[in-house]
Design goal:
It is a single chain. It contains 13 helices and 4 strands. Helix content is 42%, strand content 6%.
Length: 313
């Protein structure tokens, strides 16, 4: 029956069967040809009945630079911007034997990437990961010759607490045993209890920052105070989520220290333009400035956040 209906229907251009009306298809109450006509633009129907047109008019592109999400278009991530793009082109030319450049090697300093600058990684972490990713090594009689005892012990402990191994999905907050270890570390470091239920593990600090900003920013009237200069993750994410960047300047003449008076100035200026500051981002040690905050300065910043009802990031 279906094949007879299809043969009797006019020839049409159907971009995708996902365009068909949803729900069960009744051939008796609504012929397939009728369903197809309703799913195809009139222009396409006109072309399907005429063989004299050698070219069909293409519909406008659904995604272009001009019609994409404006917040995405406005976000900038200079760390991987024009300079890096040009450097990559130079690198490709050098690898192809181009001798026209006044240098024959490039060192990328756009991001903190110590291994690219020939700094060796901490071996303990990589050795533990190696054993967790390839647990068959733990069954080798040579495992204690290839790896230090503390590495083997840590790998066994982790694998025993990860159901399904390292390739399996974990809970939203992370592997429970690892979350417990993080809570234990915080308690030993800071001298007070840490609640594991309040700890969320992320694949890098950037993801953690993005999640918190996603929670805080509701519209352009929500402001996030960020240092200038800053790591562009903050400005890019604020723009992406449609919030307002409220910059406060670090004191270059004082080793790029934070100044509470400058924080107060930036906060007041934001309020005058109708922006409600919801959080203060502090980068310590500074990036890209490299300064380390003194305890007194930390206490001043915490008091500033408390007095002005700001979340401290």
């Amino acid at each position: 029956m279906l094949s007879r209906v299809i043969r009797s229907a006019p020839r049409v251009l159907v971009p995708s069967f996902s365009a068909l009306p949803r729900g069960p298809l009744s051939l008796s109450s609504r012929p397939l040809a009728s369903s197809l006509r309703s799913a195809v633009p009139a222009r396409s129907m006109a072309h399907s009945h005429s063989h004299s047109h050698s070219h069909r008019a293409h519909p406008p592109k659904k995604l272009t630079h001009d019609n994409m999400n404006e917040q995405v278009r406005n976000s900038e991530y200079a760390v991987r911007g024009e300079l890096v793009i040009r450097a990559t082109k130079h690198q490709e030319a050098i690898e192809k034997g181009d001798k026209s450049l006044p240098f024959n090697e490039l060192i990328y300093c756009n991001i903190g990437n110590p291994q690219q600058l020939k700094q060796k990684p901490i071996t303990f972490f990589r050795q533990v990961i190696s054993l967790c990713e390839n647990p068959d090594l733990l069954e080798s009689k040579y495992v204690n010759e290839m790896f230090p005892a503390d590495v083997v012990s840590r790998a066994r402990a982790l694998l025993s607490s990860i159901s399904g191994g390292t390739g399996a999905y974990s809970g939203s907050q992370g592997v429970p045993a690892i979350v417990q270890n993080v809570a234990k570390f915080i308690k030993e470091r800071d001298g007070h209890d840490a609640d594991p239920s309040n700890i969320f593990l992320t694949d890098g600090a950037s993801v953690g920052v993005q999640r918190i900003l996603r929670l805080l920013i509701r519209d352009e009237k929500d402001g996030i105070m960020i240092p200038i200069p800053q790591y562009p993750l903050y400005s890019a994410t604020i723009a992406l989520y449609g919030g307002s960047q409220v910059g406060y300047y670090l004191d270059e003449g004082n080793d790029w220290a934070m100044n509470v008076k400058e924080l107060e100035r930036a906060l007041k200026a934001a309020r005058l333009r109708g922006v409600e500051c919801r959080a203060l981002a502090v980068i310590n040690p500074g990036n890209p400035t490299g300064q380390v905050m003194e305890r007194k300065n930390m206490e001043e910043v915490i008091k500033f956040c408390h007095d002005n009802h700001l979340l401290l990031l």
